[in-house]
Amino acid sequence: MRPPAPRFPASWKQPPERIAPEPAEVLLFATHLDVTPRRLDELRATFSPGEEQRFQSFATDALRSRWGTGRGILREVLGRALGCAPREVRFRYGAHGKPGLAGSPLRFNISHSGALAVIALAQVEVGVDVELPRPRRSDAIARRFYTPGEIERLFAQSDPERRADAFFRLWTCKEAFLKATGEGLSRSTRSYEIAFSPPRLLWATGIPDASRRYSVHPVDVGDPYRAAVVVEASGVTPRTYRWS
Ligand SMILES: CC(C)(COP(=O)(O)OP(=O)(O)OC[C@H]1O[C@@H](n2cnc3c(N)ncnc32)[C@H](O)[C@@H]1OP(=O)(O)O)[C@@H](O)C(=O)NCCC(=O)NCCS
After folding, report:
1. pTM for this prediction
2. Residue 74, pLDDT score
3. Ligand 1 nearest-atom number relative to CA 129
4. What is the dotted CATH code of the domain comprising 25-242?
5. Strand (E) positions, 154-199?
6. Is the CB of 127 under 6 A from ligand 1?
7. Which atom of ligand 1 lies nearest, measured to the CA of 127?
8. What pLDDT is attached to residue 134?
9. 123 lines ligand 1 (CB under 6 A)
């Protein structure tokens, strides 16, 4: 089944010609991943041989096209930020596979789900996650993957639909943290705790100053998608744009 088209908030504008995040900013670029074959060809022309190989490896046309669109638009965003052509952007990879930019202090991260991708760009480490909520056994998953404090706060919500929504909102924050540190699945989701009102990281094992070091920002990307960004800095303002 075709995933729903993203419905971006009306306040989201096209990005400026020059992209340069200030120290206290994280720039977010959201994009619809279902594009015309012509647009996909244009984006694909910027791929490295490795990217073209990965593009070919997807099982269905829809998955191939959405991944290719996200990767191509990532190259466009980064090329504009660096002042180079998209095909000239060079990636490097961290120990657990987090991609970064070779030869630039700028940091970025990307997440895709359904027909939506969000790219985050900042001067400090950043992780972003988007989810298209699907019916899942979310209570059981929460009990398995969330900390006792997170479970207690989640189950204080007695309405099952609201609890399922809270589950996905927390999920995006949890995942964005794993992506901000770059540890990905090598870190247990029970080794750090996130609270809302206000959204914040309470603690993370192995990072004594974690609650001061990282800030958590749920982002409204339009229903039904949910998203969050975690930044290795405090006092940060996310600025959101649509990229087409
Ligand atoms: C890659 C990972 C970090 C996120 O994967 P995901 O949520 O399936 O996919 P997303 O679309 O959000 O992110 C994928 C992108 O993250 C980036 N990425 C890959 N490894 C990464 C890492 N270690 N850290 C940060 N970003 C990473 C890549 O750019 C990748 O894009 P690509 O597939 O186009 O190359 C995954 O390893 C992971 O941690 N999954 C967590 C699953 C889980 O149990 N979550 C529980 C939350 S409570």
Report:
1. 0.96
2. 98
3. 12
4. 3.90.470.20
5. 192-195
6. yes
7. 25
8. 86
9. no
